[in-house]
């Protein structure tokens, strides 16, 4: 330690954090939250789940309060520390991409292999879904990503009175669009004709969309905290880590949704829209004892039918 005028300064740029109870409390709260959720599934009520959720929110809030104190008021987040935090957050986003990649892998595994329970038709016949709401949700989330980019542009034009209001306004609009998206997702869940237990499609569909919705909720919370800190003048042109990381996370949510919309909703509504045609084009491989679909031949046949070049499939 270097001593100047009786004040000790470290010789390194690292932030040596103080002792904190919140990592232990957060882990314990998460355990009780999961335990309460499993108890709810087995019909033991919601009390334990409510206690676990309240404990998780409390520990999350208090831990973030301490981080804001040491970074904003105590000045412990040096340029080197902020660079390390950004690098760690990039690795975190990459790990989240890998999580969703595993979900997409599961979806396409069932899609390409099929199962005898669903007559090798995937998505299974008889499942219904709103064909307009996903498009509206896609538009909402893409617009929110564009709007938060405008907020970032105004922030990069130096933080002064001319640009503070547009930055906050665009950030607030992004939060509103995120809440509308979550409401649309809840509405979709309430009106779908299938549940989590309806074949592997229902399981993977709700796993994918539910996990994405959870990330949207976290992203909206992230943006609300950033918006509130901006109101309290915690964000400057150079001290803006919370604001930048919130924008990165929201763009990650946008990218995942685009993949989800194209690979799941588009597949359901367009490729698998005519289940009878798909069923008639099931081909048997008696040598291997399995079934598969020739989708290129199927789509070619469908296109020729529309042009009147061939007779329709009987």
From TrEMBL:
Primary location: membrane
Mode of membrane association: Multi-pass membrane protein
InterPro entries xrefs: Cyt_c/ubiquinol_Oxase_su3 (IPR024791), Cyt_c_oxase_su3_dom (IPR033945), Cyt_c_oxidase-like_su3 (IPR000298), Cyt_c_oxidase_su3-like_sf (IPR035973), Cyt_c_oxidase_su3_a-hlx (IPR013833)
Database matches in PROSITE patterns: COX3
Annotated Heme-copper oxidase subunit III family profile domain residues: 10-269
GO MF terms, alphabetically ordered: cytochrome-c oxidase activity
Pfam families found in the cross-reference section: COX3
Record field: transmembrane: 21-45, 89-108, 135-157, 169-189, 204-228, 240-260
Mitochondrion listed as a keyword: yes
GO cellular component, one term: mitochondrion
Alphabetically ordered keywords of this record: Membrane, Mitochondrion, Translocase, Transmembrane, Transmembrane helix
Keyword Plastid: no
Cell compartment(s), UniProt: Membrane
Biological process annotations from GO: mitochondrial electron transport, cytochrome c to oxygen
Family (UniProt): Belongs to the cytochrome c oxidase subunit 3 family.
Function summary: Component of the cytochrome c oxidase, the last enzyme in the mitochondrial electron transport chain which drives oxidative phosphorylation. The respiratory chain contains 3 multisubunit complexes succinate dehydrogenase (complex II, CII), ubiquinol-cytochrome c oxidoreductase (cytochrome b-c1 complex, complex III, CIII) and cytochrome c oxidase (complex IV, CIV), that cooperate to transfer electrons derived from NADH and succinate to molecular oxygen, creating an electrochemical gradient over the inner membrane that drives transmembrane transport and the ATP synthase.
Protein name: Cytochrome c oxidase subunit 3
Organism: Pharyngomonas kirbyi
């Amino acid at each position: 330690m270097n001593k100047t005028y009786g004040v000790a300064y470290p010789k390194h740029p690292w932030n040596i954090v103080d002792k904190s109870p919140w990592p232990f409390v957060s882990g314990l709260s998460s355990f009780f939250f999961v335990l309460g959720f499993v108890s709810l599934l087995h019909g033991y009520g919601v009390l334990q789940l409510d206690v676990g959720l309240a404990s998780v929110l409390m520990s999350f809030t208090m831990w973030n309060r301490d981080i804001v104190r040491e970074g904003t008021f105590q000045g412990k987040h040096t340029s080197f520390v902020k660079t390390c935090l950004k690098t760690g957050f990039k690795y975190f986003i990459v790990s989240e991409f890998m999580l969703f990649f595993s979900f997409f892998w599961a979806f396409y595994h069932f899609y390409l292999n099929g199962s005898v329970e669903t007559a090798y038709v995937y998505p299974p016949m008889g499942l219904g879904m709103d064909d307009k709401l996903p498009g509206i949700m896609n538009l909402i989330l893409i617009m929110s990503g564009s709007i938060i980019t405008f907020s970032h542009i105004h922030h990069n034009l130096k933080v002064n009175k001319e640009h503070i209001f547009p930055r906050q306004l665009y950030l607030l609009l992004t939060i509103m669009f995120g809440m509308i998206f979550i409401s649309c997702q809840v509405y979709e869940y309430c009106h779908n004709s299938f549940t989590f237990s309806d074949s592997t499609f229902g399981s993977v569909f709700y796993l994918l969309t539910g996990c994405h919705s959870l990330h949207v909720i976290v992203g909206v919370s992230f943006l609300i905290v950033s918006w509130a800190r901006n109101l309290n003048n915690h964000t400057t042109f150079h001290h803006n880590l919370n604001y930048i990381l919130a924008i990165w996370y929201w763009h990650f949510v946008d990218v995942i949704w685009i993949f989800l919309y194209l690979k799941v909703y588009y597949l359901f509504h367009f490729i698998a829209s005519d289940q009878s045609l798909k069923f008639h084009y099931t081909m048997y491989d008696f040598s291997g004892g399995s079934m598969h679909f020739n989708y290129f031949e199927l789509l070619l046949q469908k296109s020729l039918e529309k042009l009147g070049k061939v007779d329709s499939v009987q």
